[in-house]
């Protein structure tokens, strides 16, 4: 009798599972894999990559930004802004909005929505993902935009935006998703982060939210009322949550997933053998590095004063460490050349800014030993470990757990450093614990990655003011580098700007505040039935409304 009781339930489960697979395999849909569920669909708080990708297709921007590989830069095209005109000294821009753009509730998108968006993004009480990024606008001491001085609304579709003099202004200063004033102004600003609007947005983009099944998938459907809509575009996009990597590979091979990123190099070659799959590596915006704490973190936390780190405070020591690490071995053996050696925080994709003359620190153990000896580190007791002032050169290298690349790299680095007399203990930490240690200067050394922002912004990572530049994890300080960074914030000729960028790369390369390891390719795998797809350094999932499906 028990078998009879369970049989209908099992049959129902099989039917539901089969229906779900058929739903995802629908030929008019594309399924994109994401590793974790978004926390919000509100562009104000879309801090994560997944949130950003989805909200960028739900909400329109003033401008449509595209990557130009030839120039190594981003170009702007009309979106909500139908046309614009800079004044002669680029201190203001006059914008004419499209008159056919509207929210999904039917209300038109107006200049008042634009002003409100910048107001709310810069509001300290809101704490948006863009807070603190409006330094080129007229603003108050707390970073909030001075609306009266910045904006002049001529009518519902015509406005002027004013900028502070002597600032370097670009179209990136306007690259923010516009939100609906008539919806958000009904919510107290300190309550927006927990409001229902985060999960059921009143959007404007070429796609709109159809269904959100928690911890499983988000379905977007084409918004026929958007001026970007086209009859040939893909009608539904499914963002499917697939946290397990092995499951991801299985679903790609079975055709249940149409698009995935962060494919491991060893799997890329195998997937490339499938006739229905294409592999595309995207290079140039993420690099791995070994962070060396340049300062004594404990002393700084207690006194807010600077004392060089006992091991890594000496530039010669950091240079020696970089010479001792065989970066190319990691690049060749694990990354399988899906990447390139990194010599500074400026990638070769930035054609004009990149300093190709930098030689970098090629693997040279003898040079490393020489520099260590010059810095006073010798193996006096002949135990195989260098010492100085009766203190042995021994430290812990922290890496995030569950990251095969970092584990492989740490093993290579440990063996490399042992050859020059340095004892390294590798410790794996959960990512949250690792970041807490880095942010609060509790760790001596670690392996992490940086993702380069567009436009390039050096100050948060390398400026000496450690109180206001919290992403300067290693505590790097150099007056020459500071002067360059501050000069980059001034209005300069283009040639001066390029020279400053190259000078900075030479300074940072010489100082080696971190060991720059390698640029890591983001390996994309997608089904060949997807056509007209754009994959470049601006982002792997972008402009989905231009994608088409092969008949």
Summarize the structure.
This protein is of the alpha+beta class and 551 residues long. Helices cover 29% and strands 22% of the residues.
How many helices? Answer: 16
What oligomeric assembly is this protein in? Answer: single chain
> How far apart are the first and last residues' alpha carbons, in Å?
50 Å
Largest sheet, strands/sense/barrel: 6 strands, mixed
Uncertain parts = 1-20
Helix content: 25-40%
Side-by-side strand order of the widest sheet: 14-20-13-19-17-18
Broad shape: globular
Please give the radius of gyration in angstroms. 26 Å
- By DSSP, the count of extended strands is 23
Question: How much strand?
Answer: 15-25%
Describe the protein.
Strand 6 (151-155) and strand 7 form a beta hairpin. It is globular, with a radius of gyration of 26 Å. The strands form 7 sheets. Strands 14-20-13-19-17-18 form a 6-stranded mixed sheet. It has a 4-stranded mixed sheet with strand order 1-10-9-8, covered by helices on one side. The protein contains 16 helices and 23 strands. It has helices at 2-24, 49-58, 111-121, 147-150, 181-184, 245-254, 265-271, 297-303, 315-324, 327-333, 365-374, 404-419, 431-439, 459-462, 479-488, 494-511, and strands at 29-34, 63-68, 73-78, 81-86, 92-97, 151-155, 158-162, 207-213, 217-222, 236-241, 259-260, 277-282, 286-292, 339-341, 387-388, 391-392, 394-400, 423-429, 445-451, 514-520, 522-527, 530-531, 548-549. The model is unreliable at 1-20 (pLDDT under 50). The protein has 551 residues and is an alpha+beta fold. Helix content is 29%, strand content 22%.
């Amino acid at each position: 009798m028990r078998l009879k009781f369970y049989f209908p339930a099992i049959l129902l489960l099989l039917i539901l599972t089969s229906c779900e697979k058929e739903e995802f395999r629908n030929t008019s849909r594309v399924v994109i894999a994401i590793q974790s569920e978004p926390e919000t669909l509100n562009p104000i708080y879309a801090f994560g990559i997944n949130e950003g990708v989805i909200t960028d297709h739900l909400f329109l921007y003033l401008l449509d930004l595209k990557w130009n590989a030839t120039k190594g830069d981003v170009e702007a095209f009309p979106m909500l802004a139908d046309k614009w005109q800079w004044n002669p000294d680029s201190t203001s821009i006059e914008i004419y909005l499209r008159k056919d753009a509207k929210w999904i509730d039917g209300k038109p998108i107006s200049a008042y929505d634009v002003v409100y968006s910048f107001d709310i993004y810069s509001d300290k009480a809101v704490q948006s993902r863009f807070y603190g990024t409006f330094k080129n606008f007229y603003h108050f001491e707390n970073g909030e935009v001075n609306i009266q001085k910045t904006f002049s609304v001529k009518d519902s579709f015509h406005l002027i935006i004013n900028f502070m003099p002597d600032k370097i202004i670009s179209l990136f200063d306007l690259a923010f998703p516009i939100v609906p004033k008539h919806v958000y102004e009904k919510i107290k600003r300190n309550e927006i982060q927990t409001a229902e609007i985060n999960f059921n947005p009143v959007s404007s983009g070429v796609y709109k939210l159809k269904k959100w099944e928690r911890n499983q998938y988000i379905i977007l459907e084409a918004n026929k009322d958007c001026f970007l809509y086209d009859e040939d575009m893909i009608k539904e996009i499914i963002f499917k949550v697939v946290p397990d990597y092995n499951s991801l590979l299985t679903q790609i091979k079975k055709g249940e997933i149409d698009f995935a990123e962060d494919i491991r190099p060893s799997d890329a070659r195998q997937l490339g053998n499938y006739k229905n799959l294409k592999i595309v590596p995207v290079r140039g915006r993420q690099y791995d590095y070994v962070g060396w704490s340049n300062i004594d973190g404990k002393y700084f936390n207690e006194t807010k004063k600077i004392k060089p780190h006992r091991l890594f405070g000496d530039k010669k020591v950091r240079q020696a460490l970089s010479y001792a690490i065989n970066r190319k071995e990691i690049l060749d053996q694990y990354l399988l050349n899906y990447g390139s050696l990194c010599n500074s925080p400026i990638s070769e994709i930035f054609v004009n800014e990149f300093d190709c003359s930098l030689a970098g620190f090629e693997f040279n153990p003898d040079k490393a030993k020489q520099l260590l000896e010059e810095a006073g580190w010798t193996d006096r007791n002949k135990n195989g470990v260098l010492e100085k002032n009766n203190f042995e050169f021994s430290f812990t290298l922290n890496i995030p757990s569950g990251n095969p690349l970092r584990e492989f790299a740490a093993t290579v680095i440990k063996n490399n450093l042992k050859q020059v007399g340095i004892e390294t203990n590798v410790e794996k930490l959960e990512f949250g614990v690792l970041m807490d240690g880095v942010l609060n200067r509790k760790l001596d050394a670690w392996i992490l990655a940086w993702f380069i922002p567009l436009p390039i912004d050096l100050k948060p990572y390398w400026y000496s003011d450690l109180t206001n530049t919290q992403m300067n994890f290693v505590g790097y300080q150099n007056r020459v580098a500071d002067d360059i960074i501050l000069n980059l914030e001034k209005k300069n000729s283009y040639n001066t700007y390029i020279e400053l960028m190259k000078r900075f790369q030479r300074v940072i390369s010489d100082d080696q505040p971190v060991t720059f390891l390698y640029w890591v390719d983001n390996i994309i795998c997608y089904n060949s039935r997807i056509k007209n797809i754009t994959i470049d350094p601006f982002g792997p999932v972008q402009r989905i409304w231009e994608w088409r499906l092969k008949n």
